[in-house]
Fold this sequence. Notes:
Radius of gyration: 27 Å
Number of helices: 0
Shape: elongated
Strand content: 25-35%
Structural class: mainly beta
Largest sheet: 2 strands, antiparallel
Oligomer: single chain
Amino acid sequence: SEGTCAMLSYNNYQCCASTVVGVPGLFNSLYCKNLEENSNCLLDAQCNTNMYCDQSQFRCVMKGSNSQPCIRDSQCVSGSFCNTATFMCTTKRQAGEGCSRGDGADCTSGVCAQSNYNNYICCDTDTIDGVAGILNAKYCSGLQSSIGCAISNQCGNGLYCNANVCTQKKLEGAACTTTDECETDCGYISLAQKKCCTKSVTVLLNT
């Protein structure tokens, strides 16, 4: 037969049209790939799309849909992950939904990070670093209104972090303490009062 002589499973060889390299240092050999359902196998990468290598019988089997048992992500269909709390295939979570996997495998975006302290959600954009020494971790950025936050530059356009929640920035004339709160600037209108304003100036007071 035409092709390459390679392994189906351990020490089981046949001529294959295409091959995949085993795990370096562990299965450092060529293995047949694009295998059909019920074919002998040793690696997930040998099996056709939507299949994995069932290690209990070393055969290619169909990936599980939601609520079917699993022990690893590769056993679940695209768009799902293996939930280690239930060991069931589970639909990946959308941006803003809670997550627990550091590798982001439980999120459609592939990114799981903190929104605020120890509250992990799926991010829909990139992450930013927290304040060094205080919030020394990755945090979601581009957050929408009403999503938990730790620092203002996590929140999307027109929002700031207020009481650990992304909140709409204040309009001109509203009371403020920092410019982060305002759509424009935050300046003093008297020695004891600040408001959001279109323009502000720096005034040097005699001491």
